[in-house]
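Thread: quick sanity check before group meeting

JM: Hey all, I'm pulling together slides for Thursday and realized we never actually wrote out the predicted structure for the chain we discussed last week. Dropping the sequence here so it's in one place. If anyone has concerns about the input, flag it before I start.
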Amino acid sequence: MAAMTETRAEPALYPPRIEAPDKPMPVWRFLPQFLINPLRTLPAAVYQEPLFSPPGLGGRMAWVTDPAMVERILLEEHEAFPKSPIEARIFEKILARIMHQTHAQAA
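JM (edit): ok, ran it. Output follows.
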C-alpha cells in the first residue's frame, strides 16, 4: 500500500499588532507606557498621516513618515533641524560606533 502524504497548510504568520491610541496620551499615561513599549504611545495619526505634530507642543515635535519628506529632512535640509545637546551626544556615540564597526569589517 502506498504511503499517503498529508499536506497541512501552515497558519499564516502575523506579527503582534499594537492598537494605536486615537489621540495623544496625557503625560501621566504616556510616560509609563513609553517605558514599557514606546510604540504604544504613538497616536494613530502617526501611522496614517505623512506628517503629524501633536497639538499643544507648538510644532516643536513631529513625526514624519512620508519617504520623500524624510529624505529631504535628513539629506537636503538637515541644517534647518538642529539637534538638542542630548540628541547630538547620543547620536555622536552611535554614529562613531557604526563607523568603527564599518571600518573594522572593511579591513
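AS: nice. The chain has four helices and two strands. Residues 20-76 form one domain.
JM: adding both to the slides.
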